[in-house]
Amino acid sequence: MTKLLSDFTVGESGKITKVNGEGKIRRRLFDMGVTPTAEVTMRKKAPLGDPIEVTLRGYELTLRKSEAECVEVEVK
Predict the structure, then answer these.
(1) Rounded distance, CA 52 to CA 22, Å?
(2) What global pTM score does this model have?
(3) Among 18, 20, 63, 69, which one has the highest count of C-beta atoms within 10 angstroms of its own C-beta?
């Protein structure tokens, strides 16, 4: 099942399948290591859903909800 990273619940994990978005947002995500085939786990989510913290490639990364909406993940 494929979900957007912004729709994950705390503790959920999966493998990134696609990074959407255009221009600067997509480039920024790739520069931070958000690339297809990377494993990602949701660690924390702010009460209003923005920002979120994920574990990716062995480090913690904080993303805006708008950035997380560009990342499609295959849920484990």
Answers:
(1) 21
(2) 0.87
(3) 63
**2-75: which CATH topology?**
SH3 type barrels. (2.30.30)
Say whether the peptide bond before residue 47 is cis (omega within 30 degrees of 0): no
Alpha helices in 1-76 (DSSP H): 23-31, 65-68
70 contact partners, CB below 8 Å, separation of at least 6: 19, 20, 21, 25, 26, 29
Assign residue 65 a region (left: φ > 0; alpha: ψ between -120 and 50; beta: otherwise). Answer: alpha
**Do 16 and 38 meet the contact criterion of CB atoms below 8 Å apart?**
yes
Output DSSP code: residue 6. G
